[in-house]
Amino acid sequence: MNEQVYVLKDVIRNPTRAFKEISARGRDFLLGAIIIVCIPAFLTALFLPDASLIHSLFGCVVWWLVLVGCVYVVGGLLNGKADFMGLLSATGYAQLPMIIIPIIGALLVRPISEEFLSQLSALEVILLINISFITFIGFFLAALIVLAWIFVLCILASRECHKFNTWKAFVSVVVGELASISITNQLLTVTGL
Asked: Mean pLDDT across the stretch 127-136?
């Protein structure tokens, strides 16, 4: 367990070393990867009352499995040598920054009561709308930064697991991401979730 905490820290501080370690012993880190992938779904359901835990979990886990499958296949076509469990675990750990998104969302999504709004002057309502817009832009930018961070971590994970150069890792992740989004959307549509 202590080793997994060090690897978690390394995902942030030294991702190349972390993903080499995870790739080499993928099964040992699989439970941690599953937990990391599922935490954002739990946080989303916790902080956003309209969000369904089942839908969030299904979406996160299915997307992750499809992404890893696609990156594994594309990496194999590019002469990568990844072990599937190592890639699965490393890609799961690469999702660590995703934990930030539901927390930021929970801080920003606060309902405003009609009673509160009725006590405001027109100028105060306009000011509140402007503040809400600026807050939304801030959240959007923060989300883009986190998603870019995850994307870079996925590239590093693919590179270390497949044991090939960064360009091939980039291609495998881009194609894997595009395919996983399409396939996951189709699966969610077919299942009605």
From this structure: 77
The model's pTM is: 0.84
Task: Name 24's Cβ contacts closer than 8 Å, sequence gap at least 6.
Answer: 86
Question: Which amino acid is it at 20?
Answer: K
35's tokens? 């937990």
Kindly report, residue by residue over 176-189, the tens digit of the pLDDT: 999 988 888 888 78
Both tokens of 48, joined, read 């956003």
A 10 A CB-CB count for 98 gives 20
What is the rounded distance in angstroms from the CA atom of residue 9 to the CA atom of residue 149?
15
Nearest to 71 by CA among 40, 95, 99: 95
Query: Residue 83 and residue 93: Cα distance in Å, rounded?
Result: 15
- For the stretch 147-171, pLDDT in tens is 999 999 999 999 999 999 999 999 9
